[in-house]
Every structure is written in C-alpha cells, then in structure tokens.
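Subject: for your reference before the review

Hello V.,

The reviewers asked for a structural picture of the protein, and I figured it would be easier to keep everything in one thread rather than splitting it across files. Below is the amino acid sequence we used in the manuscript, unchanged from the supplementary table.
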Amino acid sequence: MTTQKDPSNLFAGRGSLASRIQLGKEARRKVSRSQLAICKIDKRDPMSLLEASNVGRVPELIPIRFGRMLADPFSFYRGAAPLMAFDLSRLPRTDVVVQLGGDAHLANFGLFASPERRVLFGPNDFDETLPGPFDWDLRRLAASFVIAARERGFAASDQGNIVRRLCETFRQRIAEFSTMDTLDVWYYQFKSASMLAIADSAEERKKELAVIDKARLQSSRSVASHATERVNGKLRIRELPPLVYHIPLQNKREHKQYDDMIRRFFADYRLTLPDDRRALFDRYELVDVAIRVVGIGSVGTRCYEALFIADGECPLFLQLKEARASVLEGYLPVSEYPNHGQRVVNGQRLLQSASDIFLGWSKMHHTGNDFYVRQLRDMKGAFDFTTFDLADLAEYAVSCGTALAQSMAKAGDPALIGGYVGKSAAFDEAIIRFALAYAEQNEADWTVLKAAVKSGRIQATRE
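And here is what came back from the structure prediction:
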C-alpha cells in the first residue's frame, strides 16, 4: 500500500500493471466499496465547526461569508468544506492516497488557459489541496451534483443517475489512463474541444461554445478595461466597496511601510518563478494594489489584486490569495511545505495538466500570512449550472469525471485506483447512496445556519 505523507511513494518500486491493479483490489479488504456508501453522521454542532474555521479571518468580512452561504443549500455546501472534512474523517475511507484537490465540488471545475493559450477544462481551486484518500474528492464532487440537481427540482432517481454518469466516467477513464504511457498521461489535456465532443446535441454545443468563447476573451487587458480608472493621471484599480477597496493609509509613514511590505512580498514571490518567468515578470512595474473579497468559503481570508504595467500600456493583473492550513490537515498528515502558498502551488501544478505561467507564492512578513499568486481571470470560464436541464447536468458530470480521473492519474497511480474501483457498478452504487444521503445532511446543516442567523447567534450580511 502507501503512506499518506507523500503520494510520490505510490511510484516507489512500481510493479507490473497487473500487480498494481491487484494492490488496489486488496485495498477493498480493509474498506470495501460498499462501505463508502455509509453516511452516518454523528451528532455535531455544524455552527461550532464553521465558527472555528473563522479563526484568523478578517472579522468584518465574516458576516459576508455567512450571508453568501445563506443563499441556498449549494452556496452553503461551497462554504462548508471544513464541515465535510470533519464528517469524512469519521467515515470509512480507502488507503489509496493521491494528491487531493480538497474541495472538489462542481463549481470548482471550469475553464482555464494553458501557457500555449489553449482553453482547458478541469479543477481550478486548490486552496485545500493535500495528500489523502482518493474517495474524499470523488464523494465531495458527487454530493455537489446531487445538491445542484435537488435545487433544479430533479427527482431522486435522476439525481442518482447523474452521479452514476460521474462514477462510470471516472472508472472508465482511470482504466484508460492506467494502460497509457506514463508520459502520455502527464501530457494529456482535456481541452474545450473535448467538452464540445461530449455534447449530445447541437444546442448543447452552442451553449458550451458561448462560454468557451467568452473565456478566450478574458485577459489582463480585458480586466483593465472595466476594473481600472485614471486618478490624477495615473491608472488605478477601480473601487467597488465592500468587495474591492484600497487600504486607507493616513500619512506618508504608513504609505512607505505599506509600499515596502508589498515590494518585499513581490521580491520574494519573484524567486519562486522559473528563470524565464522572472525575466518576463521583470518587464512589469507595480502601479497599484487593492483588497478583493472573493468566493464563499474564502470570504474573510486575505486577498489582494495587483496591477502591473509593462511598456507604459500593457497591463498584468495578479491575484494574491491567502493560503491557510488546508481544512483536511486536522484529519490527515499536515503539509510538508513551510509556506501554505507553496502547498497550494505544488498541488495545482501536480493536479492540473497545465498551470498559470505566473503561479508562485510568498509571505506577508509583517503578519506572517502565506499567499499564493496567479493571474486574475486569465481565460477563466465557468458554466452556469443553475440553468442546466437534466441532460446538461449529466454531460457536465461526464466532463468532471474525466477531468478528475486525469488529475488523479497524473498525481497518483491510476492502476491502483482502478484496481480499487473495479469494473462493476459496485463502486458507483456506493457513491450514489453516499451522495444522496449527504445532500440531505447538507440541507439539514443549512437549516441550522438559517436558525442561527434568525436567533442572532450568527451575523450574516446580504450584499
């Protein structure tokens, strides 16, 4: 088997394909596939767990976090990764370890750019990445499909069938990756064209193509066209309080301290880039930094956007996102990296088929907070699953199942995973039962949040 500390151990002394598949089958002796259906959640206070995850967040932003989670069960689920990590840690899990994304719900998959400017599809959020049982990501993703389907009013049988498509796709793709040349697995990219090929109808292809075409237009230049303004003749990030704003600085001394802090941050960040990317980064001059409130689960963590200019007119927007300890670290071996930004960056590089050319990490030394850095909205695209019909959601499950299988095949041993999941529908049925049950649990927890807000225990701000 393997340890949970280092997923690269999966490849130490690799045997034949057949022997590795057999190791995966033997892992069922400890935790059978049917045991993954178990969703018996012991009595716990969901609000206490969520409140504990607020430690270290910006206090005045916490009500926005809960306000966003209050919107509907899926929004709650997006912000409740700490709660599900707690639950999964107390349920049966496999010993088949890979690099997890850590927060694999369907809204954390989407379009992104390769360095060659191809539009790819796959996981695009790695704040919680950590080595762990492969089934944790799959179970979180499956439950998210059920929750999304419930909100669309689809019957329980249809919810189960969507998860079945997800799991069938995952099993089939893992089996295919296990027989591929190792380099071919590493080079494999799930392109937007592959998504279009999955579409069952011309109408579906048309809708997907519209999202893909929109993503192609996303760049630092397009962001600058609507997110900047001229102030005293200088280009500055446009404020949109309370979501985008500048830190109020009272005097020259505060301005100098802030400027020194930011410039030291980027000097350290620069050293995490490969030499060729440093040469590119050095062409840009920093002109402005603002605070940005992002996401649902991330609200309250520190996030900035930075505007750089090259040649007097070429913009580059970078996002600086705080990297805290993964929500999984309370239940799995902690990260081996000294900076959580480095944990996120290395997890992303391992799990994505191609990553942002400006991906790196640094630390705000005056506070000790870790950060990772990437381009802001560079060819990013998201599908509006709130408008999906049943066929749309099932097709999206196929895309997500393919992307997740590719990530795990790249980061782990697909033969080992394939041996565990097997060729029959036993694994699929277990995950379906779990996902249906956990969607019920999620809705019950969302109800607890609503009651906590109504009672005044929790403050929630509607934006």
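For the response letter, the relevant points are probably these. Residues 220-375 form one domain. DSSP finds 17 helices and twelve strands in the chain.

Happy to draft the paragraph if you're swamped.

O.
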